[in-house]
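Data availability (excerpt). The following record was deposited with the supplementary files.
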Amino acid sequence: MTTTVLTKLRGTARTAWQIVRGVVGENAYERYLDHHRRNHPGEEPLGEREFWRRHVDRQDATPGSRCC
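Predicted structure:
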C-alpha cells in the first residue's frame, strides 16, 4: 500500500473509533468539558472522577430508555 492509502485508512479508522466512543458514551466527560468551557467560563469544572460518579448516579435515578 502507498503512504497516501495508509494515511487515509488511519484517518478513517480514527473517525470510526470516535463514532463508537460517542455511541457508547465514553466521550461524555470530554463533551462536558467542552460545554463547560463555552458556557461557564471562569468556573472550575468537575474532576473526571466526580463527573462519572454524578453521571452514573443520574442514570440510575432516571434510567429512561436504556437496555439495562
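Summary of structural features: The chain has a mean pLDDT of 83.
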